[in-house]
């Protein structure tokens, strides 16, 4: 048996750590992890810290790393109506101006 571990973290904050053993005659193993409330994670972390990092190690050597962006909850319902107070939304003015310029120049494609 080869000892292994899975670590899910956000920045330096460890969210999930799971140890497992991989039999020597196997190249893979399914590991079930406890759920993470991603909607709370995205809201609590601020716009610049919405990324999870998954690390898999075998025999104390890191074998795989994957980063995953966590999107905030949907701001609209299925009809397109806002679910939040618009005055509470953060707006990146630079990004907004780039979008407006692209739309006016016909260069922004949706979909």
Could you characterize what this model shows?
By secondary structure, the chain is an alpha+beta fold. The protein has one domain. 18% of the residues lie in helices and 32% in strands. The chain is built from two helices and four strands, in the order ββαββα. The chain has helices at 38-45, 93-104; strands at residues 2-10, 13-22, 51-58, 61-69. The protein has a four-stranded antiparallel β-sheet, with no helix packed on it. The mean pLDDT is 77.
- Rounded to an integer in angstroms, the radius of gyration calculated over CA atoms is 20 Å
Tell me the overall shape: elongated
Number of strands: 4
Mean pLDDT across every amino acid position: 77
Major sheet: order of its strands?
Answer: 2-1-3-4
Q: Helicity, in percent?
A: 10-25%
Tally the helices: what do you get? 2
Biggest pleated-sheet summary: 4 strands, antiparallel
What percentage of the residues does DSSP assign to strands (E)?
25-35%
What is the fold's blueprint, element by element?
Layout: E1 2-10, E2 13-22, H1 38-45, E3 51-58, E4 61-69, H2 93-104
Antiparallel strand pairs: 1-2, 1-3, 3-4
Main attributes?
single chain; 111 residues; alpha+beta; four-stranded antiparallel sheet; elongated
Short description:
This protein has 111 residues and is of the alpha+beta class. The chain is 18% helix and 32% strand.
């Amino acid at each position: 048996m080869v000892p292994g571990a899975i670590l899910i973290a956000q920045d330096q904050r460890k969210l999930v750590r799971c140890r497992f053993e991989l039999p020597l005659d196997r190249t893979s193993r399914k590991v079930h992890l406890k759920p993470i409330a991603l909607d709370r994670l995205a809201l609590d972390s601020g716009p610049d810290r919405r990324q999870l990092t998954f690390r898999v190690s075998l025999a104390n050597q890191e074998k795989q790393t994957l980063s995953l962006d966590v999107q905030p909850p949907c701001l609209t319902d299925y009809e397109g109506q806002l679910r939040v107070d618009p005055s509470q939304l953060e707006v990146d003015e630079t990004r907004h101006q780039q979008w407006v310029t692209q739309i006016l120049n016909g260069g922004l494609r949706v979909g």
